[in-house]
Write a structure and sequence with these properties.
It comes from Feifania hominis. By secondary structure, the chain is of the alpha/beta class. The protein is about 40% helix and about 10% strand. α8 (about 170-180) links the parallel β4 (about 165-170) and β5. The structure holds 1,6-di-O-phosphono-alpha-D-glucopyranose and magnesium ion. Magnesium ion binds near residues 8, 45 and 169.
Length: about 220
């Protein structure tokens, strides 16, 4: 059994990929840089500045550090405007019911996200105060696949990594969990990741895993 579950945010608790895409796309179009959905999928779980570097691989010229800061800020302004469209309707029944079930069973729940906008998103969808710990882009110096964001979440909970399960949709997040000594459940893009302890299709599968009713995948 696990004493806590640390959830990635984007792609796990809710879906903001399309907003990230629209915001980066506006910035890229203005700069005349080619950008599409397939490049966007490489940005999953990656920090803002690292995402910008991936987008600039297609740029026709080099950008100074100050110009990069300005582009990232421009994208974030557009993104934050789009986030204002989010509401409790963006929280699925499956996620809401599972979180409640875990809390009712006495399992602690935490967020481990690369995003500096994590708290805004949690407030928009109405679950900010459900969590026992929030570790996000604001309190880390190294982005996933570095385990820092999850190690800090476990630290706030006062638990060892071995007592926590990490839930992730990105390969970088599964690697971070693995390297930090956490068991993990991979979903979405990370569903087939063989470094993950479990693979899940539906969120409610977490109840059985956390409450000790389900076996691990093969050796990891
Ligand atoms: C999320 C997204 C990434 C995004 C990153 C930083 O990570 O998956 O695409 O680049 O946050 O976001 P922001 O620009 O808001 O700081 P996660 O870890 O929640 O999946
Ligand atoms: Mg994610």
């Amino acid at each position: 059994n696990y004493q806590a579950v640390i959830f990635d945010l984007d792609g796990v608790i809710c879906h903001t990929d399309n907003y990230h895409y629209q915001a980066w796309k506006q910035m890229a179009d203005r700069e005349g840089i080619y950008f599409d959905e397939s490049i966007n999928s490489r940005l999953r779980g990656v920090s803002r500045m690292a995402s910008l570097e991936i987008i600039l691989e297609r740029a026709q010229r080099t950008y100074t550090a100050a110009e990069k800061e300005a582009l990232a800020a421009e994208k974030n302004e557009i993104y934050r405007q789009l986030l204002m469209n989010m509401s409790p309707a963006d929280l699925s029944q499956d996620v809401a019911a599972t979180l409640r079930q875990l809390k009712d069973a006495g399992v602690k729940i935490a967020i481990g996200s690369s995003s500096r906008n994590a708290k805004t998103i949690l407030r928009q969808i109405g679950i900010f105060d459900w969590f026992d710990a929030i570790s996000d882009g604001e309190n880390i110096t190294r982005s996933k696949p570095d385990p820092e964001v999850f190690v800090k979440a476990a630290g706030i909970l006062g638990l060892a990594p071995s007592a926590c399960l990490v839930v992730e949709d990105a390969d970088a997040g599964i690697r971070a969990a693995h390297d930090g000594g956490f068991h993990s459940a991979g979903m979405g893009d990370a569903c087939g990741n063989d470094e993950a302890t479990y693979s899940i299709i539906a969120f409610h599968e977490l109840s059985d895993i956390v409450l000790g009713k389900r076996m691990q995948n093969g050796p990891v």
